[in-house]
Task: structure prediction
Amino acid sequence: MKRRPRLPSCERILYGADYNPDQWLDDPAVLREDVDLMRRAHVTSASIGIFSWTALEPEPGVFVFDWLDAIMDRFAASGLSVFLATPSASKPFWMSERHPEIRRVGRDGRREASGGRHNHCPTSPVYRAAVHRINRELAQRYGRHPALALWHVGNELQGECHCDLCKTAFHDWLRQRHGDLDSLNRAWWSAFWNHTFTDWSQIPTHDPSIDALAVDWLRFVNDQHVSFLENEIAPLREFSPDVPCTTNLMGTNRGTDYWRWARILDVVSNDHYPLHGDREDSWRKSLSADFTHSLMRGLAGGAPWMLMECAPSSVNWGQVNKLKRPGVHLQEVLQAVANGADAIHYFQWRKSRGGFEKFHGAVVDHEGGSNSRVFRECAEVGRFLRSLGPLAGITPERAPVALVYDWEARWALESSAGPKKGSNGDRHTEACVEHFRALRLAGLDVDIVSVDADFSAYSIVVTPALFALAGETAQRLARYASAGGVWVATYLTGYVDEHNRCWLGGFPGPGLREVFGLWNEEFDCLHDDERVRVIGEIFGSAGETVATEIVERIHAEGARVVATAASEFYAGSPLVLRNAWGSGSAAYIGARLEENGCVAFYESLADELGLHRDRLPRGVVRKTRLGADGCAEFLFNYTRHPVAVDVGEDTYFRVADGRSCRGKITLRPYDSLVKGVVPAPSVSFPQTPVSSSHELAPSPLPR
Ligand code: GLA
Ligand code: ZN
Result:
């Protein structure tokens, strides 16, 4: 197999931002100053040209590259790298006028206006040809330019189009998948409500009453995006085979199965805006951010990934656009590095003077220079990242626990009416994030993997709310358990097959009743304010926890009952069960347990298996990052309060002030400590003062 080009970092963590020189072409002094400011902020790289199509091709077939030539040359001369973007995320007005069919059509059949962005038809051959052509021009001209380090393909590719072209392509896709109409009607259970199709042309792109259609449509749209991306990448690979290609992903975005996308990318990159908020429970958001970072690590298959966009301060699109409190930004950046990121890029370098995002945080404010709090902080972050160079090149070690995130299961669950939707309709992601957090709170490290992963090296595999389960996947998981693994499944497991048809013979299907030693007869949905008591010895001295939202009524069929419902008419019915299976076991948690209950379950499981658990106060997290030339241990206080911890005899550095500390120390709110190859920097991050008698003097600092 051909070796894919790798991330250009090698010896350093890349640091930079989206940069839009095309907005400032009338002001060359600004452009000159930008490079100077970038150097002062320890920037290594910038993504350029993301929304520049009209600046590059003002008329059909007329290309203007002089401004980009100048920027590329200036970057090369300054030792800066360019992530050169292809401009497909926003199409020129002249093109939309000439070819209205490149504009997206909504579910209501109306074609959108040309404005906005991220709104092309992914099927349109005209648009695909135009994209191929501009990319070819860019690749021919810059493919060997010394500043070029990476292709940044499009931007946040997403969304769906319901035009006639897409509809016809959908029908072709369905023919490929199902063969003939009879098979499709059987797979879709079409006799229901008289939905039997007698001609392909009758099949709509949207009908929420046909829940199998909904899932196939999402699969199709995802495939269209992937082939759109392949079309974009082809000319780039032709003219610059050694330059890696990425496109910026959006975490757990709904309509995009990134496990498929990752297969065609050289490097995985993500946009991430955690909207921290500085609330009492913000530490949970930080753990959720760890979930997203772990997902990226999983998508990258063990290689380093890039944080392609994050906010250097506040965003402008939240309901409450809060400034990040002292420590938060630094911590968010280091958190990504600890989780395997080899690049930290911001949206955006310089605030635009006008337009929709003029108030979005940027490294350079409207004031224009380096004299802002945000600039100074970003420059300190950049300088500190330089000292983390030895960490680049390799990601953290494999964790003992794998957690399966599966877009197809999510689509099937979301498309099914019932059982009870989550606050955003997405119970699969909710369950995955909650179980991830519980595992981390139990002191266990977690990898996020796809359903197709090789599970054999993991001590525990957790599959939260794996609602849709194909027979073959169920067998693979069962084989993993019987070979000595521990498979943990939760409520909403194994209800439907790949066509969103319920498994017959009792849940969990297919064949999993025997593996888990239970029958999930029916499910109860609770009002938002209702709780069901759950009792069991694993829940510590209190011996109980509560369940919310979804509670299954389960019968043990050979499994050992670990916890039962203690209220409601089904009091006494099993909710947490363990079953021996081959040389391993299978565990089932048949309700949405509150956090403490879930944590207790994983603590007792880990202790039983003899797994190492990090025993830290709630909200304090340790993460080890391996690198090509070293290894570092990060210790984060995700909470807004000082927390006392004992770090033992090892010396840690508090990144915010470069002080070293050991033994019993008090972590400041949002504190970040590092131990390992990393030298302590002399920095001046804004801080929330907290006194600690155990701090030592600041250490001497290598620069
Ligand atoms: C997205 C986009 C960027 C910008 C940011 C703002 O991630 O890719 O162009 O709009 O959001 O947060
Ligand atoms: Zn379309």
Remarks:
- The chain has 17 helices and 28 strands.
- Residues 211-239 form the longest helix (29 residues).
- The chain has three domains: 14-161+225-391, 401-609, 620-694.
